[in-house]
Amino acid sequence: MNVIFMGPPGAGKGTQAEKIVSEFQIPHISTGDAFRAAMSQGTPMGIEAKGYVDKGLLVPDEITNGIVRERLAQPDCDKGFLLDGFPRTVAQADALSEIVDSLGKKIEVVINLAVDRSYLLARLTGRRICKSCGSTYHVIFNPPQQEGVCDKCSGELYQRSDDTEEKVGTRLDEYINKTAPLLDYYQKRELLREVNGEQDIHAVTEQISSLLRGLA
């Protein structure tokens, strides 16, 4: 089965993706991983992408699309794949449609992990990290025994600069604004399925798995 996975920062996509690929034995393809692999393997698109990356420039869509095409054409995708982080725009969604058509495949479902903005703010801004050992805590979901102190090494806990409410809010707004047209795009094609990402992790996994089993 060929699946696109969507969801805002902090929705738990990484955790759920691990469980999905384990159960259904399909590769988890993130654009970041695909870029790194293409550049390290020296594929034609990887070489072009490296030229932009080395200069600190954004990689154009045509190269990103080409790298995705190279990845989806590999043998481990013959039985399906889970795409994460692509497409990000309607233009990329159109390109993906052409890519899968040319490979004799089709997107079967787009799963969106739906999580309220206020819930995401609480989840992302509550993270605390130990300065000494790097252990991670959360003021609501996984608090230390003593506030501000690591359970493992008694080190001081701190909040990363990009976990502040202002910066997290900016990231979420950017995601929501860019993704809304994409959700509408797949809704019109009757491919979009929403899963409540605010449930218990195991409940989210079961809902996604049940949905995918219905397609298998």
Automatic annotation (TrEMBL):
GO terms for molecular function: AMP kinase activity; ATP binding; zinc ion binding. AMP binds at T31, R36, L57, L58, V59, G85, F86, P87, R88, Q92, R160, R171. ATP binds at G10, A11, G12, K13, G14, T15, R127, T136, Y137, Q199. It comes from the Bacteria. Residues 127-162 form the Adenylate kinase active site lid domain. Residues 126-163 are annotated as: LID. Its EC number is 2.7.4.3. Pathway: Purine metabolism; AMP biosynthesis via salvage pathway; AMP from ADP: step 1/1. CDD domains: ADK (cd01428). One of its GO terms (cellular component) is cytoplasm. Zn(2+) binds at C130, C133, C150, C153. GO terms for biological process: AMP salvage. Residues 30-59 are annotated as: NMP. It is found in: Cytoplasm. It catalyses: AMP + ATP = 2 ADP. Keywords: ATP-binding, Cytoplasm, Kinase, Metal-binding, Nucleotide biosynthesis, Nucleotide-binding, Transferase, Zinc. Belongs to the adenylate kinase family. Consists of three domains, a large central CORE domain and two small peripheral domains, NMPbind and LID, which undergo movements during catalysis. The LID domain closes over the site of phosphoryl transfer upon ATP binding. Assembling and dissambling the active center during each catalytic cycle provides an effective means to prevent ATP hydrolysis. Some bacteria have evolved a zinc-coordinating structure that stabilizes the LID domain. Catalyzes the reversible transfer of the terminal phosphate group between ATP and AMP. Plays an important role in cellular energy homeostasis and in adenine nucleotide metabolism. Monomer. This is Adenylate kinase. It comes from Paenibacillus pectinilyticus.
